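User: What would this chain look like folded?
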Amino acid sequence: MTAYIDQVKDLIRPELGKHGLKLLPRGKSSFSLMKGGQIYMTVRDTGDNVEISFKGKKYMYDKWYTKPEHLAQVIFNVLEAQEGGGGREE
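Assistant: Here's the prediction, encoded as structure tokens.
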């Protein structure tokens, strides 16, 4: 795994169970989030960018400007929006 992807995985891992998701590594530069045996979202390091594939669309983030904690928050925001809102409890 790339260091960037490893950091994102470490940040999101504690929250995955709350959303019924499991993390599936997919090579050294990507991982998928699985829900009910189906791929829910894929995160892939493409070099200068990180790509999130979700519901048939791809979203690109410049990883030099988007820190791993910011990308993790994007993922949390998507999960919360799909479940009907509400903020994360800490």
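The first strand starts at residue 22 and ends at 25. If you want, I can go into more detail on any region.
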